[in-house]
Design goal:
Largest sheet: 5 strands, mixed
Shape: elongated
Number of helices: 7
CATH topology of the domain at 106-193: Translation Initiation Factor IF3
CATH superfamily of the domain at 106-193: Translation initiation factor 3 (IF-3), C-terminal domain
Helix content: 25-40%
Order of helices and strands: HEEHEEHEHEHEEEHEEH
């Protein structure tokens, strides 16, 4: 068997299988790549369609404009499902993209040689916040103009910053002078060893206790209180008319209206003529 000679440029010959190996879904058999003569078929809705010939199952998938995908190759016979393979690949890639843990980010804090005390404390507080969130922090000090003649002043500023941040992070290496700037990288300490000096952590709200469950006795007491607080209804089915102190109380249910009007006219007091 003759071996393939390398290309004139020194690169290995092109192999089509190398491109497939980069695709994690290339190993999934589907449609005509299924080698078993019979397969157990599952419909797009998840129903069992039984054992069918592979060619018949492929034709059935084509009727739905879908693919026949092998989902359990080790079963006897292999289990295949009718699905949209492109949509399946997209959903799997999206799922893996969201499941990747977010790595630590690199934050950068810049100092100057003649930095004021208030600005220095503010930058240290920001560095504490970044370290408290699990991020790495790069401290950088830039020299300007003739400040390069006094590099020891820059190292003093960096030593002060490292001393204030020693309870939150540790330097990966001592501060180094690279060109016109001093750099040092800080890695956060374990969570149980972090003690911020300038940064105040936000207090976590305590979990509210669940509401008490109502018992039969409490329900009975609430019902009795409700019944006591309700005003008693007054029966208004019978109306009383009193036209004069000497007139009798007459009910509307026992006397017709004609008698009531006559009684009312008789009881009306008449004054002396003017």
């Amino acid at each position: 068997m003759a071996l393939s000679s390398p290309s004139p440029g020194g690169r290995p010959p092109f192999n089509r299988d190398n491109r497939r190996n980069n695709d994690p879904f290339a190993a999934i058999r589907r449609n005509m790549r299924i080698k078993s003569p019979q397969v157990r078929v599952i419909s797009p809705e998840g129903r069992q369609l039984g054992i069918l010939d592979t060619q018949k199952a492929i034709a059935l998938a084509m009727q739905f404009n879908l693919d026949l995908v092998e989902v359990a190759a080790t079963a006897t016979p292999p289990v295949c499902r009718i699905m949209d393979f492109g949509k399946y690949v997209y959903e799997e890639q999206k799922k893996h993209a969201h499941s990747k843990p977010a790595g630590a980010k690199l934050k950068e804090i810049e100092f100057t040689v003649r930095i004021e005390k208030g600005d220095f404390n503010t930058k240290v507080r920001h560095a504490e916040e970044f370290l408290d969130h699990g991020n790495k922090v790069k401290l950088r000090l830039k020299f300007r103009g003739r400040e390069m003649a006094h590099t020891e002043m820059g190292f003093d500023v960096m030593k002060r910053a490292l001393a204030d941040l020693e309870t939150m992070g540790t330097p990966d290496s001592p501060p180094k002078l690279n060109g016109k700037q001093i750099n040092v990288m800080l890695s956060p300490l374990p969570v149980n060893k972090r003690k911020p000096k300038f940064h105040v952590r936000e207090p976590q709200a305590p979990a509210s206790p669940p509401p008490p469950r109502a018992t039969s006795s409490s329900l009975a007491r609430s019902r009795s209180r409700t019944s006591r607080s309700r005003p008693q209804r007054v029966s208004t089915s019978r109306k009383m008319w009193t036209r004069s102190p000497s007139a009798r109380s007459i009910t509307s249910s026992s006397v017709p209206r004609s008698s009531l009007s006559a009684a009312a006219s008789d009881s009306t007091p008449t004054g002396p003529p003017r």
